[in-house]
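Propose amino acids for all 450 sites.
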């Protein structure tokens, strides 16, 4: 990685102006191995933090001009929010936080308006940029960054601006109303890209109404809409998927209702692919029910037909296994519907591997009480690495490839038969025809089979 680049602003003003011009004209490039390092046609390099900091401190400050410049940089990074956002947040800290607020401590993000603060002195242009940063955090940041975004919105309101109210009514204005709004005699849909909300009302329950809704959702997700969002659905029909313990919610009813129409299944699958993003969430589902967008659509299709087995596997390999467990409710419903066989087995394993410790269910052990399925499990053990997702293996080092398969395999066994202290009794009680299989599977070996 090249570290020979300019950072210092003072004394480099003329050079930075060249970078600003190159960014505006699209001739500035990103260094491949350091996305925060820029190079211009003359070969000079500069850290983007310094460029943004210099630009923001130019007087007079005009929010529209600053936003336009930041958008040029954002587009430069192929829509991913770049490191310059750190500078934007630091700028807000200096211009707003330190001037008008007190912070409880360096360990908290609780800010209180100073009793002596004169909000009449707030530059409204600063507040417009705060809203822009908040919108970017919601659209392109990690899901947890919505906390910072909402803090910014609250401050903007507290400092006397009606900017947030306008955003609630109209969104950012960056998306066409043809994309965010739809209304006819049967369906009403409206989305707000700033607050990542989708509100759907259905007046007449029929196939065409649900087709309209799913087409609307697909078109919306093809746009620059946040990847984490909430769906609020209201209608007379409230079907539930045949999954015990699945939370009752509008988004649950939407897909449980829609899946009743087989001709809409391909459209629901399209939505699933568009919505399925690791580390993104339905914002109005929390704690143990937190769910990646597409969850209810995938569950609905996964219980309908073998045609969607691959979709379920893709979903299970995409979820954040460390923070989501709602899929644990799907697995027993899937096994009860399809059993364990050559077609369903890869789906079952993907479900088990989708979380760190999947709960064992009685139906799992029952399904592995025959030679055919025990053979499937032994074959899986011999080729276990191929069942582990590439995303899971991406961060493994050389030693992990030797130790992790055995470690994870123990969780597979636990999810079927429970704690290993039960295994000797299971082997002892097993029928003679099955005992060799159980011995190979449940007897602990020092090395993992290749």
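Proposal:
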């Amino acid at each position: 990685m090249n570290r020979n680049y300019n950072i210092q602003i003072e004394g480099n003003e003329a050079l930075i102006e060249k970078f600003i011009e190159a960014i505006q004209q699209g001739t500035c490039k990103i260094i491949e191995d350091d996305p925060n390092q820029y190079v211009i046609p003359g070969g000079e390099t500069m850290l983007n933090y310094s460029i943004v900091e210099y630009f923001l401190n130019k007087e007079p400050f005009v929010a529209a001009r600053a936003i336009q410049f930041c958008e040029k940089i954002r587009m430069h990074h192929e829509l991913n929010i770049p490191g310059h956002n750190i500078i934007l947040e630091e700028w807000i800290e200096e211009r707003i936080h330190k001037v008008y607020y007190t912070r409880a401590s360096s360990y908290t993000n609780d800010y209180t308006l100073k009793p002596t603060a004169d909000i009449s002195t707030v530059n409204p242009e600063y507040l417009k940029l705060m809203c822009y940063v908040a919108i970017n955090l919601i659209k392109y940041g990690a899901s947890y960054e919505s906390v910072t975004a909402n803090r910014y919105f609250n401050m903007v309101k507290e400092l006397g601006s009606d900017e947030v109210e306008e955003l609630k009514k109209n969104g950012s204005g960056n998306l066409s109303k043809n994309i965010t709004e739809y209304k006819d005699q049967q369906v009403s849909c409206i989305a707000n890209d700033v607050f990542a909300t989708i509100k759907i009302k259905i007046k007449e329950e029929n196939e065409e109404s649900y087709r309209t809704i799913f087409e609307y959702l697909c078109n919306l997700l093809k746009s620059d809409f946040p990847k984490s969002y909430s769906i609020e659905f209201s209608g007379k029909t409230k079907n539930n998927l045949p999954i015990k313990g699945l939370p009752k919610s509008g988004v649950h009813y939407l897909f449980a209702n829609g899946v009743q129409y087989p001709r809409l299944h391909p459209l629901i699958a399209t939505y699933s692919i568009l919505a399925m993003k690791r580390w993104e969430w339905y914002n109005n589902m929390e704690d143990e029910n937190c769910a990646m967008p597409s969850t209810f659509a995938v569950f609905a299709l996964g219980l309908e037909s073998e045609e969607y087995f691959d979709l379920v596997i893709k979903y299970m390999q995409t979820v954040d296994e460390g923070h989501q467990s709602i899929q644990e409710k799907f697995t027993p419903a899937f096994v009860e519907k399809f059993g364990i066989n050559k077609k369903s087995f890869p789906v079952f394993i993907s479900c088990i591997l989708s979380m760190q410790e999947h709960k064992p269910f009685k139906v799992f052990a029952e399904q592995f009480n025959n030679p055919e399925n025990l053979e499937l499990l032994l074959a899986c053990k011999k080729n276990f690495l191929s069942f582990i997702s590439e995303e899971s293996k991406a961060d493994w080092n050389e030693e992990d490839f030797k130790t992790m398969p055995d470690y994870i395999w123990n969780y597979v066994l636990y999810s079927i038969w429970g704690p290993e202290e039960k295994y000797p009794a299971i082997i002892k009680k097993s029928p003679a025809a099955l005992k060799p299989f159980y011995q190979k599977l449940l007897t602990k070996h020092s090395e993992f089979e290749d």
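The longest strand covers residues 34-39. The first helix runs from residue 13 to 25.
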